[in-house]
Amino acid sequence: MNGRPKIKIKPTKTDKTLEIIGLFLLVGFWCMTIINYTKLPEVIPTHYNGMGEADGFGGKVNILILPIIATILFIGLTKLNKYPHLFNFPTKITPENALEQYTNATRMMRILKLVIVVIFGLIGFQTIRFANGQINGLGKWFLPMTMGLIFIPLIYFIAKSFKRNK
């Protein structure tokens, strides 16, 4: 990390679009949670096992934890994204490759922020549906889908980082 160039990365239209979509989804997540809060029963699922079955229950106030965590992560990753020279990179950062590597890394962070909001929003949505008797869990598809949403972009951007270093 010492000696890495400190470069301010100018967001592209795509980067700005990702930020706007993420913020829009986060606000929508909060709205969905607040609108449905009064309609929830006093006890709701608070945890799901790997098969998507509810295995922990608590008071309905726990539904607020999901958008709170999503918001904290969104804000934290937004702030961190302003300092790409602090990131861990799979390749050596030099003055010659810093702009490309930082641009790639900040794009990855934007996509991961979006994915985090989507995942937390889906958990909240499905929890509300479960609490209202519309479904009986997240479903068997939820864990594999979540892992795919997280790891496919990570693998893509890490591979891209190696390619750009050649």
TrEMBL record:
Annotated ranges, domain DUF1648: 25-70
Bilayer-crossing regions: 20-37, 57-77, 111-129, 141-159
Keywords in alphabetical order: Membrane, Transmembrane, Transmembrane helix
UniProt KW Plastid keyword: no
Protein name per Swiss-Prot or TrEMBL: DUF1648 domain-containing protein
Organism of provenance: Marixanthomonas spongiae
